[in-house]
Design a protein that fits this description.
The chain has 13 helices and three strands; from the N terminus they run E-E-H-H-H-E-H-H-H-H-H-H-H-H-H-H. A three-stranded mixed β-sheet has the order 1-2-3. Helix 4 packs parallel to helix 12.
């Protein structure tokens, strides 16, 4: 930790520690306030908003700016999306049927609308179209990971020096707004239409509260899951470099996600592995790692 010219620099260790504090703080508030639980407001959003206000207040009162070292965030983003790839089975996508196609079409239409609105608003403020794209699908569909991946390229190619700040601000706003709106809207629709699942599917992220005591994860389970993630990430890096050599640049976490999908769906489950275990797709250890690493984007909320 260093303090220089009114700027407090927090290293990786302290940044991660503060991120955990924010999460626990939000959980304690959610546990105490039934409204937040009832409408499924994520704990990091609750804690993150409060800490954001405190940090903002500190800046306006004393002029102290806090800068976080977010290297751990970038690693955890790769971890999280790789676990999503490992848990993805193509047969599930094929079973989605008509609802999946309708949802995909709606998403594509809204992607065009996002970019159109973003470019229009940017033009109204005499800003280049690329700023509008940063406020469109780059941040709102792609999220923090895509914003982090593309902002330096946009800054370099189009001379928008604050591209990262614009993109992160839009992604954070979209993330918080979606979290605050998603829970209440989902609850309203579920209650109104009395919706119930046809079958209970296992969670890709996290473990149900009522079953947490029944899921034992030993050190070998955890290390095997880490090993599977690292193997997928290595292939993801190779895919990323290959695509970059032919002129196609994709965020690293995207190619790691693809690598996880390919390994899960192309290699037989019985394929012999060094650990002597089956590929840990949808295993409790993978769910645990995904659950921990998925909070990485919220560490941007500062």
């Amino acid at each position: 930790m260093e303090f220089d010219n009114g700027i407090l620099h927090l290293d990786v260790f302290l940044s991660v520690t503060l991120g955990i504090v924010v999460l626990f703080f939000g959980k304690r508030i959610n546990d105490a306030v039934s409204f937040f639980r009832e409408f499924n407001i994520p704990e990091p959003v609750t804690g993150g908003l409060i800490f954001t206000l405190l940090i903002t207040l500190l800046y306006f009162v004393n002029g102290i700016e806090i800068i976080f070292d977010l290297a751990a965030r970038d690693v955890l983003l790769v971890y999280f999306f790789t676990t999503i790839g490992i848990n993805t089975k193509l047969k599930d996508l094929l079973s989605g049927g008509k609802p999946l196609v309708v949802l995909l079409l709606i998403t594509i239409v809204y992607m065009f609308l996002q970019n159109l609105i973003g470019i229009t608003v940017a033009a109204l403020f005499d800003q280049p179209a690329q700023v509008g794209m940063l406020g469109g699908t780059v941040s709102l569909i792609g999220g923090h990971g895509t914003t982090i991946a593309w902002s330096p390229r946009i800054a370099e190619d189009y001379g928008i020096t604050n591209a990262m700040e614009i993109g992160i601000a839009c992604a954070t706003f979209g993330l918080i707004l979606a979290s605050l709106m998603g829970g209440p809207i989902a609850k309203f629709l579920i209650t109104k239409h009395k919706l119930k699942p046809l079958q209970v599917e296992p969670l890709d992220v996290g473990i149900p509260d009522e079953k947490k005591g029944n899921h034992e994860i030993n050190s070998m389970d955890f290390l095997d899951a880490i090993f599977a993630i690292h193997v997928s990430a290595i292939f993801g890096v190779l895919i990323n470099e290959g695509l970059e050599n032919i002129g196609l640049k994709l965020p690293l976490f995207v190619t790691c996600l693809f690598a996880g999908i390919l390994i899960t769906n192309l290699i037989p489950k019985s394929f012999p592995r060094l650990s002597g275990r089956t590929w840990p797709s949808r295993a409790p250890a993978i769910a645990l790692i995904a659950d921990v690493s998925r909070w990485a984007p919220f560490w941007q909320c500062r």
